[in-house]
Design goal:
With 94 residues, the protein is an all-alpha fold. It contains 3 helices and no strands. Helix 2 crosses helix 3. The mean pLDDT is 87.
Length: 94
């Protein structure tokens, strides 16, 4: 019969071989690397979205409080003009 020490060595070798099989197989180490890269990409995209959200929050607050910002938005995005203004449209070119 195996002694306790020999049994421990056999179990340790078996665990080591099983771990190597998992890491070296297609679903092991290469999958870990692929998932790590995906997580890094998602973290970077998340950071970009945090910055964009901060800019949008600032713009929202400006639209709520600053009449000049509201006027600029109305003119640029919706094409509004004041009642005393005229628009000249020139077609054609050189």
């Amino acid at each position: 019969m195996f002694s306790r020490r020999k049994l421990l060595w056999v179990v340790a070798v078996f665990v080591l071989l099983a771990a190597l099989g998992v890491f070296l197989s297609g679903g092991g180490l290469s999958r870990y690397h692929s998932l790590s890269q995906g997580a890094l990409t998602l973290r970077q995209k998340n950071q970009e979205l945090v910055v964009e959200n901060a800019k949008l929050r600032t713009e929202i607050e400006s639209l709520k409080t600053d009449i000049k910002v509201v006027e600029r938005a109305l003119r640029e995005e919706l094409g509004y003009i004041r009642p005393d203004e005229m628009i000249f449209s020139f077609e054609g070119g050189p």
